[in-house]
Amino acid sequence: MPSPFRVGLNPYGLTYTLGLQGLGTPRANPAPAGLEGFVATARRIGAKTLELDWRWLVGRPDDDLRRLGQDARAAGMVVICSTWLLHEPGEMLESTFRAARLLGAPLVRMHLAPVLEGARAALGDRWPAMVDHARRVLVAEAARARDQGLRIGIEDHQDFGSEELLALAAEAGDNVGIVFDTGNPFAVGEDPVAFARRVARRLVHVHLKDYRAQWTDEGVRLVRCAIGDGCVPFAELAAVVAAAVPDLPVTASIEPAALDARHIRLFTADWWQGYPPREARELATALGRLRVRRLADDEDARTPWERGADPAALVAYEQDHLERSVAFVRRMGWL
Questions:
Q1: pTM value surpassing 0.85
Q2: Which residue ranges make up each domain of the chain?
Q3: Residues 6 or more apart from 76 whose CB is under 8 A from it?
């Protein structure tokens, strides 16, 4: 069977190596690999998708961006621009759209809110205001993107559920689709396979992410691991994509999760405030998956970043996860 995915790389599993982790703080990598190192890594693994962080692109000369896009295409890579909303007055995405045009990138991937761990209720009245802002900006910028021949993909970034993302995309227009992060449905109380089935007809990009879970009194702590070493059911997800996504192969990026673990407090009543109803059978399925390869309750699950490790150890940790992830994706026949 042909691969349902056109697999490449994004920077978010290599944030310390590349200099994005702790950017502007004393803990940032003193010798970051940066954009050039990221592109070299993508070439080395044979990436077919190259997802670029907007902070590398804004302000670069036009010729540099054109050359970067041409070189990527010559290497067989589809370029994607990655950005997010800052929730500032008068916010627009034109700087990212400019970079996408010059790079020849057909898709701008974005997340809509700064919420992580599904912790929307902690924002109180600020959350509805964030949703309103995201909706207004998305609708306006989707129209601008359409005029420039661009698509937008909105991601499940531990903030919105599948039904909410689909409603936002439908309101914004037919050039707005869903970016599916395979590990993030757990963070909003959804099962990844059920999530994939719901969004498949509008799926435009995938982040291949995995987690190992550590159970707590309040819920579960999601800890990063190499792709294939955790609880995400990748074979089932690939089958859903192959059967239901209209335009294959869909671009995908390898993305080992963040260096900070995510504590999903879904065993507390307050955490659920503001979420639409979730069927008990689906939640049970998700919780069952989280027990696969779970971490012991008393295990020190901190990443080297959380333990304050030195730069060499942090780079080695990220590199190990990348190499194991690439090996898994190759075994699956996706790269």
A1: yes
A2: 5-331
A3: 48
